């Protein structure tokens, strides 16, 4: 695998000749609609080379043992890491390892079934890269009765046929927004809480789901212990079915904070089968322009999280989108990563890259209005997969798979082994 960052004067014809990869392949893997490119765009170029693994030196490690574990020659390991000394390995040092052993992860893709017929082709195309499919279709009433908002039947059946485990995703969603009041009322009342557990469990059985994905946001901090009780009761009711819980990202525990206060990472990590930490929206709509997922912040979140949640249960989020800010008032528009990339081309502007955040961005103008766009590309997504490998995490979630990001799926197919369920009930 190569990543070619386009320079001024580059052409797809020259890039194709350089790597001996056809122009149609480059177009397809990178979602390009024509041979037009701009400086700064990063192109994924496939090769037959060994996949790259990413490892942190641990106490007691030796060069020979590391090479043996990854099934490569020690000399090849040294060639790939010219800065290391074989007899003076530094604990915590990060190294790159070309290996026949691909990184193995479990992935979870969110899908919002506004139109099943339009989403089914995407689902079939991406099925080999998805372990769990969280179907975003459910909310609940003031008395805790779960109900369906979007028709999910066809998606559930097709996901199981394609070898994915469908999870019923439920949110505290009301009037097109997350509702702290809704979840607060239900959690503080033991009867309503029991209603929610029982109605979710019944729907899982009726609809043929393999488990549940929880996305309760802005839970009132005083309901922190009630949230834990709810999760414990739900897991008990689900039995062997999967309980996956999504939590806002944080680097410290602030129990009174209205966004992160209700998430008791340690308790949730003990109860749930999978915990998805939402390492997204560092730059958020209507806020100041910032990267959606700067790598320095994501790593800080991971380092904090693994102190409380077993890494083998932990998934980080990879955003399939970026944001376009109008600078005069910070009005924000979400764009898929592919749309953001191709908008730079259509506006004929160069793409910049923030090395510290490991995120691309660019500016453009509509008349007198200046805009700035932060988004994701192959470079930024590779950095996320590196963290998964470095810290031996369970894997990643994708919000959401209806948003185009072909570079991500190309990288997965060439460099990562995605676990698929052995059995679908």
UniProtKB/TrEMBL annotation:
<dbReference type="Pfam" id="PF00704">
    <property type="entry name" value="Glyco_hydro_18"/>
</dbReference>
<dbReference type="Pfam" id="PF01476">
    <property type="entry name" value="LysM"/>
</dbReference>
<protein>
    <submittedName>
        <fullName>Sporulation-specific glycosylase YdhD</fullName>
        <ecNumber>3.2.-.-</ecNumber>
    </submittedName>
</protein>
<dbReference type="InterPro" id="IPR029070">
    <property type="entry name" value="Chitinase_insertion_sf"/>
</dbReference>
<dbReference type="InterPro" id="IPR011583">
    <property type="entry name" value="Chitinase_II/V-like_cat"/>
</dbReference>
<dbReference type="InterPro" id="IPR018392">
    <property type="entry name" value="LysM"/>
</dbReference>
<dbReference type="GO" id="GO:0070492">
    <property type="term" value="F:oligosaccharide binding"/>
</dbReference>
<dbReference type="GO" id="GO:0012505">
    <property type="term" value="C:endomembrane system"/>
</dbReference>
<dbReference type="InterPro" id="IPR001223">
    <property type="entry name" value="Glyco_hydro18_cat"/>
</dbReference>
<dbReference type="GO" id="GO:0016798">
    <property type="term" value="F:hydrolase activity, acting on glycosyl bonds"/>
</dbReference>
<dbReference type="GO" id="GO:0005975">
    <property type="term" value="P:carbohydrate metabolic process"/>
</dbReference>
<feature type="domain" description="LysM">
    <location>
        <begin position="53"/>
        <end position="97"/>
    </location>
</feature>
<keyword id="KW-0326">Glycosidase</keyword>
<feature type="domain" description="LysM">
    <location>
        <begin position="2"/>
        <end position="45"/>
    </location>
</feature>
<dbReference type="InterPro" id="IPR017853">
    <property type="entry name" value="GH"/>
</dbReference>
<keyword id="KW-0378">Hydrolase</keyword>
<dbReference type="InterPro" id="IPR036779">
    <property type="entry name" value="LysM_dom_sf"/>
</dbReference>
<feature type="domain" description="GH18">
    <location>
        <begin position="105"/>
        <end position="425"/>
    </location>
</feature>
<dbReference type="GO" id="GO:0008061">
    <property type="term" value="F:chitin binding"/>
</dbReference>
